[in-house]
C-alpha cells in the first residue's frame, strides 16, 4: 500500500488524476442524495414560516453561540425520544438557514422546547440561569432585556431568506418591522397583521410581560417558544405509530 503511494507521488500527472478521481467520488456521494430529496423530506402542509420577531430571535441565538451548548436534533434513540419527544424530521428544518442541529449537549436539546415552559420561566432562566436550574453552567443573558431590538433591517433578513427558498411574500417583507413590533405588543394596531400574514397559530403577546418597544429578550423568547411548533407532522407520525 505504502509502496503504491510512493510510486504514485513520483509521477505528478498520475497523482493529479488520482486526486481528481477520489474527489469526484466524494463529491458524487455528497451530491447524489440531493436528487432524491423530494422523496426523503416529509410533507408538512401545515408548516408555517418564522415571523420577523422569531427570525430576529434566531439571529440572536446564533450570535450568542447558543448552538454550541444546545443541539436541535432529537435522535431516533429511545432515550432521546423518551426525554425530548418525537425524533426530529428533516422537514422541521426546512426553513432553517443555517441549520442548527448541533452535536454537543452541555445543556438539553431544544428541538421541542417551544411551549414546554412559560414565558416567565424562559425570561427568568435567561436572566439568572441558576435561579431556576441550580446546576446550570449557562451564563446570564440579562442584558438582552435591556437591549432594544433593531427591527429596521428585518425586511432585508426576510429578503435574504427568500433568496434561499423560504417563501416570504412581498407583503411580509414590506411589513417586517411592523410585524416584529406587533407580535410583542398585542394591544398595538400592528398585532392583527401578524396573525393575518403568518396564521392564527402565531403567538402574539408581550414575551417579557410588558408592552412597549420589543427587546432582544422578547425576540429570543419568541424564537424559543416556537421551536418544535412550526408543524405537527412529527407528533402525527408518533401518534400513528402508537396505534
Automatic annotation (TrEMBL):
UniProt domain Cytochrome c: residue ranges: 52-228
InterPro entries from the UniProt entry: Cyt_c-like_dom, Cyt_c-like_dom_sf, Cyt_c_oxidase_monohaem-su/FixO
Transmembrane segments: 12-35
Keywords: Heme, Iron, Membrane, Metal-binding, Transmembrane, Transmembrane helix
Top-level taxon of the source organism: Bacteria
Protein name, entry field: Cytochrome-c oxidase, cbb3-type subunit II
Pfam families assigned to the protein according to its UniProt record, in alphabetical order: FixO
Keyword Heme attached: yes
Tagged with keyword Metal-binding: yes
Organism the protein comes from: Alsobacter soli
MF annotations from Gene Ontology: electron transfer activity; heme binding; metal ion binding
